[in-house]
Amino acid sequence: MSLAIVPGSFDPMTLGHLELIKTVAKRYDEVVVAVMVNRAKKYLFDEQTRVSIAEETVKELSNVRVISDSGMLIDLFDRLGADAVCKGWRNQHDYDYELHMADWNSSHNPRFRTEMIRAKSAVEHISSTEVRRRLVEGEPLEDIVHPDVEHLIFARFIENGGN
């Protein structure tokens, strides 16, 4: 049985992330979406909110589950017995960054394998940064986040004082 990890901060998860996860779910028997936690990083949404948004977004994909992890991705890879880490990229900047991370990970864990997956053109403009910009501006999110989580994202944003 093959297992892939799709890691990220998912602050919050977007329809671009969902397209990546759907692609990975067709290639692997099991997909683990890993909401990564870096204690030194400031997130718009707390860990549990990011997990809840991710779970709701992928709920229709039967071979996908969501976890959170605050450790190193190379350790999670071994703990789960993963076959690959799948990373999406939208542009050359994303690709270069992900390639650099893939090289670092494989140099620290020889078993580590990264699969780079290019974003479909229909979603390559979507980013978590765009979600946050629209939240601040009070603009709708329905074309960039799953419709079942838009209300949760707005509610948490307001609870956090709108910043």
What tags apply to this protein structure?
163 residues
Structure description:
By secondary structure, the protein is of the alpha/beta class. The chain is 43% helix and 18% strand. The chain contains six helices and five strands. The protein has helices at residues 15-27, 47-58, 73-80, 92-108, 128-137, 150-159; strands spanning 3-8, 30-36, 64-69, 84-89, 114-118. A five-stranded parallel beta sheet has the order 3-2-1-4-5, sandwiched between helices. The protein is globular, with a radius of gyration of 15 Å.
Record the SSE blueprint.
Layout: E1 3-8, H1 15-27, E2 30-36, H2 47-58, E3 64-69, H3 73-80, E4 84-89, H4 92-108, E5 114-118, H5 128-137, H6 150-159
Parallel strand pairs: 1-2, 1-4, 2-3, 4-5
Kindly report the average pLDDT value.
95
| Topology order in helix (H) and strand (E) letters | EHEHEHEHEHH
How much of the sequence lies in strands comes to: 15-25%
Residue share in helix: 40-55%
